[in-house]
């Protein structure tokens, strides 16, 4: 079905940070399947680990214990502030699990009754992105994604991201007649909504208020988690510990996997309350285990910190060369957004022109061009990417 306005190229092959289309044209890939291909394309270690797993076992049901799943859960919990993990297959699905957990927290911990318009509420940010299933898209604070699919799911309220006063006011309003709010769901950095990094003071205040009211604080780390920020987990950038995080994109390095990781204190699910047929199967978990092992073995976190700083520097230089077209650059690690002025072509137009120059980029809204390359990208690739972007900008600029 026509759910995507697709570019008229077919990508048929990839290696490292490069992909080739069916005509043999080569592109430098700064999209990585939208922050998915952590280790780049056709990584040798990932290929071998998955081939071996294919020769052993791909799928059994969660009716049985799955060693690869237990090992991946242990790797996530040992390296984070979280204690227990539920596995699924995508970001939206991870957020669905988080939303169900939040509802249960509201009922059982906060004692919020249902009925008389008193159901538990989940507070999310404007310009957020949490996925396209009905509850996840309702959580997404962007009306354009709701349009045509009403009625939306009940029980969500929105506030401007990074706005402490607005958050405090909304919380006070919701709680005026007693406990009403089950959870706050936030991206540590907004990706799709325009690459807006979270503000530390704002997040600290949200954490304080959630603690004071026993409200669940959930971070959607589907895009920023698993090393993209230069820290393993996005919350480490903020110095605030969430009660739960959701993961997906980068975790499987291209193999679909999603996860909800929670603190033991909010591990509210009991057998039979949530489930997934494919979630956490041996093949997907082998992919996750290999990605996490390679991040460590190749010291990719410090690499991402260096490459992120270099990319930011190169983009800042680009901005200073084209001050009438470009406004600035913002982001963490290898999630960076180049902000365009009104005088510049739109982000989708620049992305299209960059494709002509052999560079893959993705917009984050109409005025931001997003870089989310494989974490293994090297300095020479970043320089080439910014050169090609500059050529694209000039070919489309006034
Ligand atoms: C991509 C994304 C999602 C949705 O993930 P899917 O796997 O497409 O369902 C959710 N949250 C964030 C922050 C994302 O970037």
From TrEMBL:
**Residues at which N(2)-acetyl-L-ornithine binds:** 132, 276
Q: Which of the residues bear the PTM N6-(pyridoxal phosphate)lysine? A: 249
- From the UniProt record, give one GO term of the biological process aspect: L-arginine biosynthetic process
Please indicate if the UniProt record lists Transferase as a keyword. Answer: yes
EC class (word): transferase
Matching entries from InterPro entries are given as: AcOrn/SuccOrn_fam, Aminotrans_3, Aminotrans_3_PPA_site, Class-III_PLP-dep_AT, PyrdxlP-dep_Trfase, PyrdxlP-dep_Trfase_major, PyrdxlP-dep_Trfase_small
SUPFAM superfamilies reported in the protein's UniProt record: PLP-dependent transferases (SSF53383)
Q: Which CDD domains match?
A: OAT_like
Catalytic activity field? N(2)-acetyl-L-ornithine + 2-oxoglutarate = N-acetyl-L-glutamate 5-semialdehyde + L-glutamate
Residue spans crossing the bilayer: none
The record's GO molecular-function terms, alphabetically, read: identical protein binding; N2-acetyl-L-ornithine:2-oxoglutarate 5-aminotransferase activity; pyridoxal phosphate binding
Primary location class? cytoplasm
Q: State its location(s).
A: Cytoplasm
Q: What else is known?
A: May also have succinyldiaminopimelate aminotransferase activity, thus carrying out the corresponding step in lysine biosynthesis.
Recorded family membership: Belongs to the class-III pyridoxal-phosphate-dependent aminotransferase family. ArgD subfamily.
NCBIfam families for the chain: argD, PRK01278.1
Complexes and interactors:
Homodimer.
Name of the protein in question: Acetylornithine aminotransferase
Q: Which organism is it from?
A: Cyanobium usitatum str. Tous
